[in-house]
């Protein structure tokens, strides 16, 4: 069954349809939460909170065709809530200790994650959604509920900030 039909059923209280929707998006949810948390346990907590919050408010979703966008918005808010209540969180503890040949080293990953972490939130969100979740500008605009022009400006400014934080020969930021 397609996502729109499942979303409509879930909006009418069908728990099985909601479960199928979550099953369809569980890897995406985890990957996105991990990008924010950089820790497996925290990412799982965030996804769990997102799934519960989404279930409790699914009847308020306006358009079933935007289920993933709506769910991503809830996930981002669940991430923010998690870090407000876990300020003592130590980041980067689940990164692999060694990089395979030809990949970025652990130190370089830490540098990149640290640079992303110090970006203003509006830049960090668009950078993560664009380059880590591979979303298009219009999808990011829908998720964050901002104009596409703002997404483009935030991407540009975010990349510029990253360039300031990172050596130019370390990472290619388009």
UniProtKB/TrEMBL annotation:
GO function term, MF aspect, one: DNA binding
Domain of life: Bacteria
Ranges of residues in domain RNA polymerase sigma factor 70 region 4 type: 111-162
Entry annotated with the keyword Mitochondrion: no
InterPro entries assigned to the protein according to its UniProt record, in alphabetical order: RNA_pol_sigma-70-like, RNA_pol_sigma-70_dom, RNA_pol_sigma-V, RNA_pol_sigma70_r2, RNA_pol_sigma70_r4_t2, RNA_pol_sigma_r2, RNA_pol_sigma_r3/r4-like, WH-like_DNA-bd_sf
GO terms for biological process, alphabetical: DNA-templated transcription initiation
CDD domains tied to this protein: Sigma70_r4
Gene3D superfamilies listed in its UniProt record: 1.10.1740.10, Winged helix-like DNA-binding domain superfamily/Winged helix DNA-binding domain
Keywords linked to the UniProt accession: Sigma factor, Transcription, Transcription regulation
Residues in RNA polymerase sigma-70 region domain copies: 21-87
Coiled-coil annotated residue ranges, if any: none
One Pfam family this sequence matches: Sigma70_r4_2
Family the UniProt entry places it in: Belongs to the sigma-70 factor family. ECF subfamily.
This protein's name: RNA polymerase sigma factor SigV
Organism encoding this protein: Robinsoniella peoriensis
Gene: sigV_2
